[in-house]
Amino acid sequence: MGINLSKYALFGLALALTAGVAANAVADEKKNWGAYQVEDRRSGYTYAAPETRAMQDDNFQNPGMLWAEIGEELWNKVDGEAGKSCASCHKGPESMKGVAVSYPKYVAEKKNLENLEQRINRCRTDNMKAKEWKYESKELLGMTVFVRHQSLGMPINVKVDGEAAPYFEKGKAFYNERRGQLDMACKHCHEDFPGAHLRANVLSEGQGNGFPVYRLKWNGVGSLHRRFRGCNKQVRSSAYGYGSDEYLALELYVMWRGRGLPVETPAVRN
């Protein structure tokens, strides 16, 4: 315990030393962020470097759009024993407008939460009689980016009451629970120090409205669960599996934290 606290104290000191400088920098840049700020909630877009924001804003420069193109090709591709494509049931991609803003959601027949990646795979197995795509595969990332992109600019609006309420509370507890050798919770970076520098990066509020995102660090697109796993590893904690109950609950809570912020998929981040 002493070692853990010591490490956290050192980390906290490093953040504190940089927080003032970074906060001033953010304050200097304070502006009307428009749709990217709702009440006290700001998208990661507002913490990104100007050149990163410019890359996201231009579909021809945004490298994440390559994954959207993969999804568009798959939309019309027949696969599985039923001889269907996505278009066979849903027609044009415009039918997906508004779908992404409510995920993850509680699904009665599964008696569990389901995120968009899992919903896409359930369509494949139940309706197309096709195999599931693996998490983080180019196919599942491509289709998820493509479907979420149809809701570009629409506000995140997940349901957290009713059957979803216990999962919301579970995700909230995960977000605030200290874990790993560094004895840190999600909130210690994303609620206590947004705008502070962590090494070369500026900490954001950890909103999920841009996922799947193109990360310059990854040199590719990744899911929100990949980001969760990376954060867990950074505090020297064991990561949970893609699509695990723990990460589904955390995804619901994180999406609620970003309620009202626009879907930006595919966002670009450092």
Short overview:
Helix content is 43%, strand content 8%. The chain is mainly alpha-helical.
List the helices and strands and how they pair.
Layout: H1 2-28, E1 37-38, E2 41-42, H2 50-57, H3 65-75, H4 86-90, E3 105-107, E4 112-114, H5 116-127, H6 138-149, H7 165-176, H8 186-190, E5 197-198, E6 201-202, E7 213-215, E8 220-222, H9 224-234, H10 245-257, E9 268-269
Helix pairs in contact: 3-6, 5-6, 7-10
Properties at a glance:
270 residues, mainly alpha, 3-stranded mixed beta sheet, two-stranded antiparallel ribbon, 10 helices, globular, disordered N terminus
Order of helices and strands: HEEHHHEEHHHHEEEEHHE
For the record, give the distance between the C-alpha atoms at the N and C termini, rounded to a whole number: 33 Å
In terms of DSSP E residues, the strand content is: 5-15%
Our Rg estimate from Cα atoms comes to: 19 Å
Structural class: mainly alpha
| pLDDT < 50 stretches | 1-6
Q: How many E-type strands?
A: 9
Give your account of this protein's structure.
This protein is mainly alpha-helical and 270 residues long. The protein contains 10 helices and 9 strands. The strands form 4 sheets. Strands 8-7-9 form a 3-stranded mixed β-sheet. Strands 1-2 form a two-stranded antiparallel ribbon. α3 packs across α6 (138-149).
